[in-house]
Amino acid sequence: ILPFLKRARLYPIIHFNGIKVDRLLITALAERWRKETHCFNFREGEATITLKDVAILTHLPMDGKPVCASDHPPEDRDGMLGWVHFIHSVLGVKVPVKGSVDATDRLPPIRKHQVSITWLTKYFRDHYESHPLTKESPEDEKTRYAHVYLIGMIGGVFFSKKSSNLISCGWLRIILGSWEEMREFSWASACLANIYHNLCNASLKSVREVGGAMFIVQFWAWEHMPWIASVQHPDRDWPIDHPLRGEAYGTR
To answer: pTM of the entire structure?
Structure first.
């Protein structure tokens, strides 16, 4: 499926699956985030994540059109049935809706214009255990697998919703589109906007969880504050008496 990801300029995302996020670090940064300025308010001054930071850390394209998704079904049908028909036409799988015979789960895979990523990826995983994907597989099979991989990575990793495994149907309109259309988007800009949005929510007292690509925030912190990184680099280590090290950030 790698050629399809390269056509969409999304090949770099294969390196960001299964990254462990330091929750304590993200919590400490969220407490210093100010939604009025979109900046971290440190004792030494303000700092923020820029578009250039995201582009360098992820290698995602920052030029192109803005990523805008709409929950309105692309077909003439209204509501969830329109999305069920759209998903079936592209992926060849009929997603059960509430009240249908094959909707055996307590919560249906599709609800309120959102689709369960777990259900969709499990469906294809079970299918390809009996029909492995090879270089000789039909082109449409490879395309479907590439689309499902992007659904899992974009909906479950880069633009995840707190503890939820649901992806908005509006995202499916973009992910399940043509590869040529996908390569025209500025994915780095979308990541940055989503990070700002989730940090603003996380800075509220009533919020206990944070979604989005917090691993990018973690990489940014390690890059600009190397003394808190998991791996120390001697050539970038700060002196022990440096004003930006130690008590200012509560580190060693």
So the answer is: 0.79
